[in-house]
Amino acid sequence: MKNLAEEWTRRLLVDAGVREGMRVLDIGCGGGNVTFLAAELVGARGHVVGLDRDAAPLEAARQRARELGVTHVDFVCADLGSPLDGHGPFDAVIGRRVLMYQPDAVACLTRLAAVLAPGGLIVLQEHDATAMPVCQPELPLHRQVSGWMWETVAREGADLRMGLHLAPALEKAGFTVERVRAEATVLTPTQSHPIGYILRAMRGRIVAKGVATEEALALDTIDERLAEELRTAHGTCLWEMVFGAWARKAG
C-alpha cells in the first residue's frame, strides 16, 4: 500500500504541475509522507509546509526531517477549521484524504484559497467508499473487513463520497477545475494489498467506535485468512476507488 499510494500521489502531483522551486502547503500532513514527497519535487530551491492539528505526528515528522537532513520543510500545528492567518502565499496546496474529514468542505477550500497566490494550484486526493469493494466471485471476508474500516470512518464523521464530491466542492469554492481522475486498487491472488496492516493500524479506532471487537477482528490471522480467500476463490477484487483532482485559483 505504501509504495502504491506514493506512486499514485507522486504521479498526481507531477501531472498537476508541482515542480522545482514552488512553495507548497501540505494540509493534514500527519507524519509527513506527502510533505516529504512534495519536498523531493520542489527541491532545495522550494519549500514545503506540513500542517496538521495533532502535535504528536508533527513532532515525529520534524524528527524525520532532522534524520534525513531535509531543511526545506517546516511543520505547523493548526486547524483547517480556522483561518490560516500568517501563512502563505503558496504556489500550491496539496492534501491526501483530508477534505473528507472537514465538516464543510467548501468552507475549508475557501479558506485554503486565501493562502494561495493568484493562479495558484490545489491538488487533492480523496476516496469514494460507497461502491467498493467489487469482488468476483463474492469474497465475504474482504467485504466484512472493508465494512469495518469504512463504518469506522463514517462514525468519525467523514464524507465517504468525497471523491465524487471533490470537483463540485472545488467549483463552489471558486476554483477552476483542470482535471479529475479515478483509479481502483485491484487485488488478485498474486497482487496483494496490506489490508491487515491497515486494519491493525485502525484497531483502536474500530473498537472505540463500537464497530467490531478485538475478538471479531482476530488480527493475528487476518493476513493469512484474506490471502487464502483470494487464492481459494481465484478471485479479483476492486478494493477501493481513489480520486485525484487539480484546480486553479483565479489569477
Characterization of the model:
By secondary structure, the protein is of the alpha/beta class. It contains nine helices and eight strands. Strands 1, 2, 3, 4, 5, 6, 7 and 8 form an eight-stranded mixed sheet that branches. Strand 1 (23-27), helix 2 (33-42) and strand 2 (47-52) form a beta-alpha-beta unit.
In short:
This protein is of the alpha/beta class and 251 residues long. It has helices at 2-16, 33-42, 55-68, 105-114, 140-155, 162-172, 195-208, 214-217, 222-233, and strands spanning 23-27, 47-52, 73-77, 90-96, 116-128, 134-136, 176-187, 236-248. α3 (55-68) links the parallel β2 (47-52) and β3.
| CA-based gyration radius | 19 Å
In whole angstroms, the N-to-C terminal distance is 37 Å
How many β-strand stretches?
Answer: 8
**Largest beta-sheet characterization:** 8 strands, mixed
DSSP strand (E) fraction?
A: 25-35%
How many separate helices? 9
Q: Any idea what the shape is?
A: globular
SSE topology string = HEHEHEEHEEHHEHHHE
Low-confidence stretches: none
Look at the structure and give the mean pLDDT: 95
Helix content: 40-55%
> Which structural class do you get from the secondary structure elements?
alpha/beta
